[in-house]
Amino acid sequence: MTEILREIGMIARALDSISNIEFKEYDLTKGQYLYLVRIVENPGIIQEKLAEMIKVDRTTAARAIKNLEANGFIEKKEDPHNKKIRKIYPTEKGEQVSLIIKRENDYSNSVALAGFSDTEAETIHQLLQRVRKNIEKDWEFVKKGNRRNY
């Protein structure tokens, strides 16, 4: 069987390593850039939804959010209708740095897809979405405390 997950893992780790090095000058480390971009794309998101979107546990998300807030990239605001809910918004600093992250993402996409036709790139995208959807089912299952049968 083709080791597609090994390939995906190597690609993800290489890109994450590059990003962690390049974004260090902005005080973004250990994947915090992922959180910042999602917050910019979804202002007012709650922590639980953000964790689900990035596919991490709530503790990991809480730690990243705390660091982003401490470094002035985001701010939390109480929901006017429910004081228990704290929504997350990007600050001006967060918005500005997210533009740099977006440029890096666009560049990395162009490097990754060099030599591929538009049709091939779209096919890869569609196939990877299918892979993600398959994996999400197990992620949800295990996240709820279940064990997979393999």
The overall pLDDT, averaged over residues, is: 93
Give the N-to-C terminal Cα separation: 16 Å
| Structural class by helix and strand composition | mainly alpha
Number of helices: 6
Order of helices and strands: HHEHHEEHH
Question: What can you see in these coordinates?
Answer:
The structure is a single chain. The two termini are 16 Å apart. By secondary structure, this protein is mainly alpha-helical. The protein contains six helices and three strands, in the order H-H-E-H-H-E-E-H-H. It has a three-stranded antiparallel β-sheet. The longest helix is centred in the C-terminal third of the chain and has 26 residues. Helix 2 packs across helix 5 and helix 3 crosses helix 4.
Describe the protein's topology.
Layout: H1 4-22, H2 32-41, E1 45-46, H3 47-54, H4 58-70, E2 74-78, E3 86-90, H5 92-112, H6 118-143
Antiparallel strand pairs: 1-3, 2-3
Helix pairs in contact: 2-5, 3-4
Q: What would the keywords be for this entry?
A:
single chain, 150 residues, 3-stranded antiparallel sheet, 6 helices, 8% strand
